[in-house]
Amino acid sequence: MPKEYRTIQEVAGPLMLVRDVEGVTYDELGEIELASGEKRRCRVLEIDGGNALVQLFESSTGINLSNSRVRFLGRSMELGVSEDMLSRVFDGLGRPIDGGPEILPEKRLNINGLPMNPAARNYPQEFIQTGVSAIDGLNTLVRGQKLPIFSASGLPHANLAAQIARQAKVRGTDEPFAVVFAAMGITFEEANFFTDSFRETGALDRSIMFINLANDPAVERIATPKMALTAAEYLAFDKNMHVLVILTDITNYADALREISAARKEVPGRRGYPGYMYTDLASLYERAGRQKGKNGSITLIPILTMPEDDKTHPIPDLTGYITEGQIILSRELYRKGIAPPIDVLPSLSRLKDKGIGAGKTRADHANTMNQLFAAYSRGKDAKELMVILGEAALTDIDKLYAKFADAFEQEYVSQGYDANRDIEETLDIGWKLLRILPRSELKRIDDKFLDEYYGKQG
């Protein structure tokens, strides 16, 4: 039987100090029993001699210092995992909230996971088709990659996240594919949107959802992505599945870190966030990847809203250092009615070259991708010049580029949240748009591809 302590010294917000404890370790789980018999969970944050600073998972209301008892459970936080978790919805601490039965676990895993040895990693190289042209065609997602979406307040990142979760697949294989979706600090309305969207399209059958609401405790918000990644590791490396993990919203997670850091009276770093936020985010993101000798993989799409649309804010800044690129949503495109409003020029997938080409997508993919980027960039420059000097100041070829830029946004980037385009359709739309320009302008495309595709009527 675990030893019980009646030595609660102080309760301050989400923190509680217990004195004269023995054999208690960092990150160990505890249980507080109130005088009424109600039980609440906690976790050890800090040990100083015989004093334990613990963090409460629920409210501290009603905890009487003299009548409440604390017992430590001798283990850190764990998630009971099983294949029965697929098609289920859980809260941020891994408890079912969909009205279904409790999971009978095949095993229990520590939610902090085990760091993946860099020498044991396989290089990401298989193409994942999301059905979204601006990602598949220009900033390709590769199996085992970490590719965040940088959004901003009021932009439809929830719609894009749901679309990717519904549509994503590894092409040319019948290997099992699953989605682990974790939402942190979202509203009831957003939670209902995600669960309804997954149910209506049948995507829930191959998904595990973890939902942490805005009114749930901050400490639960910190546990939610770890729960999701633990479930993903089990499916990927024990059950050999390809797993896509979507985490939204990392900004809410970082704010919860800051809240708890402030309660612990730690010295703040940039913008009040703790100095260890880089390490903390890396401990999440680096759990994605592929392992040598294992068929499964974890591909990660973290979504974050940039405070004040600022790319240099600590959260997007640190995320950009750790991950392999970023997809950026644009407020300007959103105002134009482009859906999804992906700004392709500042967006980047550092591994896209590894996942495209003959045998993966199509031989002409790299050439058309480079030409589309170049033409769209010149078209946007021409449109800016037109605003300053008027259309009469543009050459005929600049007018064609301006026309191309408009058509590119309307037909290639904008596709709505229900259209699921395969990569061939995306590439064909690219060729249709490039035909707006004379063949002599397509300098980034090999002549053999121009001969094969440029003259085609599509």
Structural description of this entry:
This protein is an alpha/beta fold and 458 residues long. It folds into three domains: 4-75, Elongation Factor Tu (Ef-tu), domain 3; 79-355, Rossmann fold (3-Layer(aba) Sandwich); 364-454, no CATH class. The protein is built from twelve helices and 22 strands. The strands form four sheets. Strands 9, 11, 14, 16, 17, 18, 19, 20, 21 and 22 form a ten-stranded mixed beta sheet that branches. Strands 1-7-4-5-6-3-2 form a seven-stranded antiparallel beta sheet, with no helix packed on it. A three-stranded antiparallel beta sheet has the order 13-12-15, with no helix packed on it. The N and C termini lie far apart (74 Å). Residues 354-454 form the ATP synthase A/B type C-terminal domain.
Strand content: 15-25%
Largest sheet: 10 strands, mixed
Alpha plus pi helix count? 12
* Rounded radius of gyration (Å): 25 Å
Which CATH first-tier class of the largest domain would you pick? Answer: Alpha Beta
Supply the CATH architecture of the largest domain. Answer: 3-Layer(aba) Sandwich
CATH third-tier fold name of the largest domain: Rossmann fold
Structural class: alpha/beta
Number of domains: 3
Q: Which regions are unreliable across 5 or more consecutive residues at pLDDT < 50?
A: none
Percent of residues in helices = 25-40%
- Measured distance between first and last alpha carbons: 74 Å
